[in-house]
Amino acid sequence: MSNSRHSERSEESLVAREFVTHSAEETIALGRELATQLRPPVLVCLDGELGAGKTTMAKGIISGLGAAREEDVTSPTFTLVHVFRKGNPVILPVPNEAEGSEAKELPARTTAPSSLNVFHVDLYRVSDRHDLETLGLEDVFAEPAIVLVEWPDRLALRTDWPIVRIKLEHLDGDTRRISIADDAKPQD
User: Do residues 159 and 135 lie in contact, with contact meaning Cβ atoms separated by under 8 Å?
Assistant: First the structure.
């Protein structure tokens, strides 16, 4: 286990490691570092109890990928899926609005010419297979993307994509133990 701060491990691989962060800022910074090692297609499973820091880690990963600003990454608990696209604007319905509501455009990232789809999924409110099927997640896996899933134990979908598992544990105050494991098979 490493008690060192994120800045001391910038040259090391983050996969198959355990870290302790002492603030939301350190957790976000660790997520940003991890983002530099992610290549689509990949499924990132964010596991931990309520308040463990799953969305905070997602903020770091998504902003580190250049797909959104930290402040634009929020928990998709009620909308279930947030879509971010690096390089091009994305049109999404406003969450929890009636059908026919206005849509909003997320800003294009002018500094990132390449396109990358990033999906942030929260399955906390998914109670059964029917709920999961209505999300259409199989479509998410139709093209290379980076898919972050909170509450992955509720994901009954099979994929042959590489999987990175991140377990977040609340120790006390703002301190978190974060274990990262790469279940991907070695590529030729």
Answer: no
**Tens digit of pLDDT for each residue in 99-113?**
443 433 434 333 333
pTM of the entire predicted model: 0.76
DSSP state of 69: -
* Owner of token pair 């957790």: 27
Q: Is the CB of residue 42 less than 8 Å from the CB of residue 141?
A: no
Q: How far apart are CA 167 and CA 153, in angstroms?
A: 12
Query: 183-186: long-range contacts at Cβ-Cβ below 8 A with a sequence spacing of 24 or more?
Result: 184/42
Burial 99-121 (b: 16+ CB within 10 A, else e): eeeeeeebeebeeeeeebbbbbb
CA-to-CA dists, residue 8 to 2, 23, 33, 45, 169, angstroms: 10, 16, 12, 25, 21
